[in-house]
Design a protein that fits this description.
Elements (H helix, E strand, L loop, with lengths): L1 E5 L4 E5 L4 H7 L1 E3 L5 E9 L20 E25 L5 E12 L8 E3 L14 E22 L9 E3 L2 E3 L1
Length: 171
């Protein structure tokens, strides 16, 4: 399978067969309108989203303000003392904040159908780089399926919804 990226255009094409398991790691944007967008990743404990430098991965664009995020537990985490940590990284693997979306969610909270409201340091802030999802597990994890949903505001708006352009801030 091969990928084509039109430099500077933000357009990527995929040629050839694409496995379902591979496709879900990339994440994708939910249909939205206006400046507020959502991007969603769904993955298994043993198939975490990884850095896909320039392939078909979902990205949150530089300048976006992270409004909120959730972890939805599709199937419960199993194992011993398991944890799930969610952050963001750049396409080249440079970590923006390893736990900036949510830090060390304990296995006890990761039960089937649970919805965890994330409270990491990046929630309510504007990011300076294009960002991809970074997920790590801790402890001994033997099962679980999760969905991470991040809502962000594009471009020249801060996390409170105020328009910012040329150093001037207005409502």
């Amino acid at each position: 399978m091969s990928y084509e990226s039109s430099a500077g255009l933000g357009v990527r094409n995929h040629y050839g067969p694409k496995l379902i398991g591979e496709a879900e790691q990339f994440g994708g944007q939910v249909s939205t309108s206006g400046f507020d967008k959502q991007v969603v990743w769904e993955f298994d404990y043993d198939n975490l989203p990884v850095n896909f430098d320039g392939q078909m991965e979902a990205e949150i664009p530089a300048g976006a303000s992270i409004l909120n995020a959730q972890i939805e537990v599709v199937s419960a985490m199993t194992g011993t003392s398991g944890t799930l940590t969610v952050g963001l990284e750049e396409a080249d693997g440079t970590v923006i904040d390893v736990d900036g979306i949510d830090a060390t969610v304990a296995q006890a909270a990761l039960v089937a159908n649970a919805i965890i409201e994330c409270d990491g340091a990046l929630i309510g802030t504007q990011i300076d780089e294009d960002a991809q999802l970074l997920v790590t597990t801790g402890g001994t994890v033997t099962g679980g399926r999760f969905r991470v949903i991040i809502e962000y505001r594009q471009g020249d708006f801060d996390a409170t919804g105020n328009y910012v352009a040329g150093g001037v801030k207005g409502a």
